[in-house]
Every structure is written in structure tokens, then in C-alpha cells.
Design brief:
With 267 residues, the chain is mostly beta strands. The chain contains no helices and 21 strands.
Length: 267
């Protein structure tokens, strides 16, 4: 379905599984959706488009009304490969995050862009170093905005998981990396009143080639050691047992000296 090689799609279903509507979005080239989020005033979809924008692939965000009417869409990027992986609404704004191959400090950087609910771009930032860095998830709580993903620029190994906290106006508050000598990647981030959780896969720790991991962080992360809860288990370095009975793999965590960079305006 759609207009080209592949199109992004979104479908709405009733609680009993009845399809209420569906929409496709794209042009004659390859366009794909990766993230969706529901707000009080509509539905947001994120992904990448090769049909529209400034480069080979651009990130996009589209807003729909609850009845499926498209309200607006925006593309973001440059002449390189740029893709949005996740979207998170908050009050009268929405945050878009992903991978920027057009801007930043290295091969590719993580990016986060904030839009007003009417589609006006408020600010954007890139984060990374000389390697390949990409954000895969974003979440908002009362104290700030968090992005997580993988970094090839900082940390202990090939790729490390990272988490960055920003203020609502785009100021970086703190960041940490997590991992060992192999590939460790964060894929999802969630917020609660008790803390921030990231999960993903690790090639550095665990029982096999690749294991799942779950790490809990405090929302306040000053200097010093990562603020994790629970006592260390004797004889099992790197494992923490939380009060809830949740077992968390934690062996190496580092804070890196980086700063956010202004990126481009929307296209």
C-alpha cells in the first residue's frame, strides 16, 4: 500500500480488535515508521523518509488527530542519513530522537529535537563524538528529558549503552555510559516516580554471546558513582539486587565529558 517502494503506516484499533482506520505516509521512495506515541491532543508518528527532505534519508514526525486526520508533518536532516527512532509527547510539546548522519561531531550522532504541539521547532541538539552514536528511545518526566541508545565514541568497548538527561530547554544536565569491551546497546528507556530504567542487550556480560540487561538510574545524577539502589551481592561483582527483587547487571558505568550541540532547523 501507499505511494512508493515502502511507506510508513499507522492503524487504530478498538479494544475488541476492530480496525477503526489506517493511514499511509510517504512518497515514491523508501519511507518507514519506527515510533508512535499518543497525546491528549493527537497521535505522533516518527521514522525516516527518502522521498522528502534534504538528503538521502531524513527524519520525520507526523501528527494525526484521533480520527486519523493528518494535522501536520515535518522532516529534519541534511545531506546525509538521518532517521528518527522514537517520539515522546509532553504537555504542549513533543520530543523526537534518533540518528543524525548529517550533523554533529563524528560518523553519526544522536539527536533530539523539540517541537511545539503545532509543529513549530523549538530547539534541537546532537550528542556524540568521533564514532557512531545513535539514540533509540526518549522519555519525559517532571524533572527533564532522557534519551538512550548506543555510543561508539565513549565508554569501555566497541559500543556502550548511554543515557543523557536534558532540561526542557535543551541544556544537558548529565550523561553516563554503561558497558564493557564488547557491544552493549540500549533500546528502551522508561521513567517512573522511583527512577529511570534502560534495557537492551550486552555482549560484554552475562551467560552467552548476547544477553538482555536492565539498569535502573536515579533521576538525579551528580558527580561520583552512578546512583543505583540495592546492596551488592557478595561473590557476584557487578550484580545488584533491588528492593523489589529485580536483578540488574551492572559492571562498568562511566560519565563522559560531552556537550550538546545545536543542530539544523526543520526542513
Amino acid at each position: 500500500f501507499g505511494a512508493g517502494a515502502s511507506d510508513a503506516f499507522i492503524a487504530k484499533f478498538a479494544e475488541n480488535g476492530t480496525q477503526l482506520w489506517n493511514r499511509t505516509w510517504g512518497g515514491t521512495a523508501d519511507d518507514r515508521g519506527f515510533g508512535v506515541a499518543v497525546a491528549t491532543d493527537g497521535i505522533y508518528q516518527s521514522g525516516y523518509t527518502a522521498s522528502f527532505g534534504a538528503g538521502s534519508n531524513d527524519a520525520f514526525i507526523t501528527k494525526f488527530a484521533s480520527n486519523g486526520t493528518q494535522l501536520w508533518n515535518r522532516t529534519w536532516g541534511g545531506t546525509g542519513d538521518d532517521s528518527a527512532r522514537c517520539v515522546a509527547p509532553s504537555d504542549d510539546s513533543v520530543y523526537l530522537t534518533g540518528y543524525a548522519g548529517s550533523f554533529g561531531a563524528g560518523v553519526g550522532d544522536a539527536f533530539i529535537t523539540k517541537f511545539a504541539s503545532n509543529g513549530t521547532q523549538l530547539w534541537n541538539r546532537t550528542w556524540g563524538g568521533t564514532g557512531a552514536d545513535a539514540a533509540r528511545s526518549v522519555v519525559v518526566d517532571a524533572t527533564g528529558v532522557y534519551i538512550s541508545g548506543s555510543t561508539g565514541s565513549f565508554g569501555a568497548g566497541l559500543n556502550d549503552a548511554f543515557i543523557v538527561k536534558l532540561s526542557a530547554n535543551g541544556l544537558q544536565l548529565w550523561n553516563w555510559t554503561w558497558g564493557g569491551v564488547n557491544n552493549d546497546d540500549a533500546y528502551e528507556i522508561r521513567a517512573s516516580t522511583e527512577g529511570i530504567y534502560i534495557c537492551g542487550n550486552t555482549g560484554s556480560y552475562g551467560a552467552g554471546g548476547t544477553d538482555a540487561f536492565l539498569v535502573k538510574w536515579s533521576t538525579v545524577c551528580p558527580g561520583g558513582e552512578p546512583p543505583l539502589e540495592g546492596p551488592e551481592i557478595p561473590g557476584a561483582p557487578g550484580l545488584l539486587l533491588l528492593a523489589t527483587g529485580l536483578l540488574v547487571v551492572l559492571v562498568v558505568a562511566r560519565r563522559v565529558a560531552t556537550k550538546m550541540h545545536d543542530g539544523p532547523q526543520k526542513r
